[in-house]
Amino acid sequence: MNLNQLSRSTVVPFPAKILKLESGLTLIHQQVPATGVAAVDVWVKAGAIVEPDQWSGMAHFLEHMIFKGTDRLPPGSFDEVIENRGGMTNAATSHDYAHFFMTTASQYLGDTLPYLGELLLNAAIPDDEFDRERDVVLEEIRQTYDSPDCIAFEALAESVYQRHPYGRPILGTEEILMQRSPDEMRRFHRAHYQPHNMAVVIVGDVAQDDAIKWVERSFPAFPSPLTCPHSEPEAEPPIVGIRRQELRLPRLEQARLMMAWMAPGVDDDPLQNAYGLDLISVLLAESQSARLVQELREDRQLVQAVGSSFSMQRESSLFTITAWLEPENLERVEALICDRLSALMTTPVSAIELARSKRLLRNDYAFSTETPGQLAGLYGYYHTVAGAELSVTYPQRIQAFSPEDLQNLASQYLSPYHYAAIVIKPL
Amino acid sequence: MTSSVIPQSRQTHRTVLKNGIVVLVVENPSADIIAARLFIRAGSRWELSHQAGLSHLVSAVMPKGTERLSSLDIAERVESVGASLGTDSASDYFLLSLKTVSADFPEILALAVEVLRSPTFPEEEVELERRLTLQAIRSQQEQPFTIALDQLRSAMYGQHPYAFSGLGTAETVAQLSRQDLQHYHQTYFRPDNLVISVAGRVAPEEAVAQIEAVLGDWQVPSDPLPILDLSPIQSDPHTVIKTQDTQQSIVMLGYLAPSVNANALDLSDYTALKLLNTYLGNGLSSRLFVELREKRGLAYEVSAFYPTRLDASQFVVYMGTAPENTAIALDGLQTEVDRLRSTRLTPEELQSSQNKMLGQYALGKQTNSQLAQIFGWYETIGLGVEFDTRFQQEVAAVTSEAAQEAANRCFVEPYISVLGPAAAIDLLGKQE
């Protein structure tokens, strides 16, 4: 079956409006009456992949510095304004994006959004705050190095992406951060925090006219862009053979096996492969009845836990399988996982198992779109990596997969002969 | 400024079935979802110290077999309709939670009830989950924060069940038997010890009828529920230290703090300390965040927590910091807590903490799972669903004077827990 055809012929109405404002800024808005809440999520296509190698960590560090105020707003004043009104705010940075979100009672939208707009447009990045906040980021880095799972994942990404910036840690390193200056960050900010690169998502008890009015007032004039060094992401060549790396860590109570496969990004084949791999991930290890959970945890009792995950990214997605286990079971478990991947290619998934996996994903979608904040995050994320209106087609497109589709996807992307693996053992 | 205007008008319908089961229903038509929480008045607080971890093991094995269904049957029935069914043991309660699209609710409720009423605790599943639990106990030793909190809890609670992590210890878990699990189940899983809280797209009378249909025939046993006889918690503030070659040191101060329970007519210290906890540790504008992270760059994570508990709770402030800053961090946390004893909150600080607390309380009741959880929990620990309103009124009524008095009663001398590299710990000793 041709799934692209199906998705085109069956229209799923997108419940939000996507508007292009005069400034070039995108506004995505959906009114959800009776919630009493306004959720705002501002997405900027300025994640870690736009950094040149020597600026690694800049996007994330900037996300911290945004909250340090502007010429008109002292550090912390936005936090006070929103939290004094009973709202909450935070931010996060990934390879593909940085985003800044807040939720408040809808009547306070007009009191709070102008502050967020001012911060994002006119971040001052004061010199003394830069030095102090760098210490905070260094603490954040130290915290991740006390976590074996974080260390393992970082090593895995680095092994999969030997050229593409997806292989670099989002937080950067102490060595590189110490070499960066506030002025470089200001250039990075002025280059990337521009209207064509940003979307403001507003979901909740807010009428469209009000949403437009407050976004126009809060994001009035963007400062003129500055240039800064760009990364030139190289296409990552496919993994040939098995890249296995072993790390030994102190204070480790159990071993880890992390395996990864590269999958296409969302640019050329919008989401089709991604959704299929999502299904395979659920079927393999994302539920209690999943294949690897039943076999490795319940029946053979070789692992403490096993999980899989499909992480959709713009330029190249990542499929991972992770097992927590005793060191003596490492080889056997890796061999069994490879064998089960081979079976996916040769034997069609049964109708019952496929239906169950689809149902889990469709319900998961329903369960994770209950609140305005969840919806705003979903639309912003899709806008950033693929297109906001595609988000709502998810349940229907998941439903359309056939056993053959999954067989083909497994053959194409989940080879038991070509993958990266990180093994962590106790010292 | 008024605090929150997020609608709070959702009505909770409370029904008591003939066999004593309390049913709470919040009708919320906004999404095609129903969430339910089945609370049993049990949990790790009901464990004998030589059986620490029993509730957790019960929760792990419970969904792994009934008289009719195997572990895999249960998982497949739940997952074939994309639902979730989980069991969990907390300090003050034991929980079965489920979530479905509305049409599947009766079917999954019936399955949950089967798991609740007639688990068989198959011997091989007990062995499997015991082994996995022992491994999980070892794995906790990989997490510096967990170790630091464990030793703090152990120092503060002595022989009281709150001293233990929910998983229990390697020694106690190794000794638990299938009979222990069955006995625990027979003792506490009975209709007069059960609260069911439902939220979602369902009419209250319909939900009650569905529950009645699968649980109405459950008889109350003739013997009364055992009375819990817990050893008293003795206050004995001291310092506990763990040397470990970590990237960060973890520093914690803990104070024994007021409980809530049905007999406590006066919750003023509880409410005032909840407010101070918000003031100190909640959000980017909180005192600890601003003073120790924003102004001094000492930490990425710095915060406070004060859980609501049936017995003496703990008020904890903590942070992770570079090893060379260990002593500074300890001093910084201590200074901020002591300041609450000597200095009253300004009217602005008080108002802002109240607004923050009430606003975030309202934001914490958005999903059906959150609604089912909060009302069911209040009912289970004896505060009743009306505590939802009372709590908000009392928070709004806290004065700066009352907060300072509560601080003076609670923050006398801290238990201190420190984890970090030897060099940092040595330095600490020299300064003290």
Secondary-structure blueprint:
The complex is a heterodimer of chains A (427) and B (432).
Chain A: H1 3-9, E1 17-20, E2 26-31, E3 37-44, H2 58-66, H3 77-84, E4 88-93, E5 98-105, H4 109-122, H5 127-145, H6 148-160, H7 174-179, H8 182-192, E6 198-204, H9 208-218, E7 242-249, E8 255-264, H10 272-285, H11 291-299, E9 303-311, E10 316-325, H12 330-346, H13 351-367, H14 372-385, H15 394-399, H16 403-413, E11 419-426
Helix pairs in contact in A: 3-4, 4-9, 10-13, 10-16, 12-16
Chain B: E1 12-16, E2 22-27, E3 33-40, H1 54-61, H2 71-80, E4 84-89, E5 94-101, H3 105-117, H4 123-140, H5 144-157, H6 170-175, H7 178-188, E6 194-200, H8 204-215, E7 239-243, E8 249-257, H9 268-281, H10 287-294, E9 302-305, E10 313-321, H11 326-342, H12 347-363, H13 368-380, H14 387-397, H15 400-410, E11 415-420, H16 422-431
Parallel strand pairs in B: 2-6, 7-11
Antiparallel strand pairs in B: 1-2, 3-5, 3-6, 4-5, 8-10, 8-11, 9-10
Secondary-structure class of chain B: alpha+beta
The biggest sheet of chain A, with number of strands, parallel, antiparallel or mixed sense and barrel status, is:
6 strands, mixed
Overall shape of chain A: globular
Computed over alpha carbons, the radius of gyration of chain B is 23 Å
H/I helix tally of chain B: 16
Per CATH, the architecture of the largest domain in chain B is: 2-Layer Sandwich
What's the architecture of the largest domain in chain A, going by CATH? 2-Layer Sandwich
N-to-C span of chain B:
45 Å
Distance between the termini of chain A: 51 Å
**Fourth CATH level, the homologous superfamily of the largest domain in chain B:** Metalloenzyme, LuxS/M16 peptidase-like
Protein name (chain B): Insulinase family protein
Pfam families (chain B): Peptidase_M16, Peptidase_M16_C
Organism (chain B): Phormidesmis priestleyi ULC007
InterPro entries (chain B): Metalloenz_LuxS/M16 (IPR011249), MPP/UQCRC_Complex (IPR050361), Pept_M16_N (IPR011765), Peptidase_M16_C (IPR007863)
